[in-house]
Amino acid sequence: MRPSLAAALVAFSAALPAQALDLGNLSDAERGALRAEIRAYLLENPEVIMEAVAVLEERQAAGEAASETELVRANADALFGAPGDWVGGNPEGDLTLVEFMDYRCSYCRRAFDEVEGLLQADGDIRFIIKEFPILGEDSVAASRFAVATKLVAGDDAYKSVHDALMSYNGAMNAAAFTRLADALGLDANAIVAEMASDAVTEVIAANHALAQRLRIGGTPTFVMGETMLRGYLPQDRMQAIADDIRAR
Question: Model-level pTM?
């Protein structure tokens, strides 16, 4: 068993005069000897450095988590109660999951089936979608089409369009949106006309402002309860986090 650094320092200090135990009173020679003792110990036991780094990383992670929790609490109304958002899953669920997503984001597309599976398997999660287009003009156009659909045709139509866009790989323009709306039995002309409205702009702008306050710069980003989850997560990992939140 390797000796602890504290034990090594105790042994070193025992060899010093009593007054030298005050580190501020060490002579240059004593200070040099102490540094040499510490260096020798670390060279003989380099794993101590890794242990110290691990402790530091844990403390930093805990600090970041606490900071993110405060951000979520400070923005709870905009996160969980914005009138322009689509709400699915179980609207009366005991836990809310919010997703900031972009239709052109490959990881959002991977996460789509994972989230759908989670909502079906758990049955007690309220799910909110935040349209957060950040990957160029096609992303913005797709989000405008989805938000316009909700405003013109309601929540069920929005979900149908959202699901279709998550697997759509074609052009993001008025002609494509018209074909998609027609295929879903929606009023394509009304929806396409609504895409340029101030109401659509306000929904997307509000989501961008909220993301900035929450320090969100990528997609997908999830907020589950008061916990920020950045990036793609498989269904089992999301379920484990949900279970942990409920157990607290």
Answer: 0.75
